[in-house]
Amino acid sequence: MLTLWLAGSALLLGTLGALLPALVRLRPDRETLTRSEANIAIARERERETKRQLEEGQISDAEYDAARAEIEQSLAFDLDGQSESSFAKRSSPLTAAAISA
Question: What does the domain layout of the chain look like in residue ranges?
Answer without folding.
Answer: 33-101
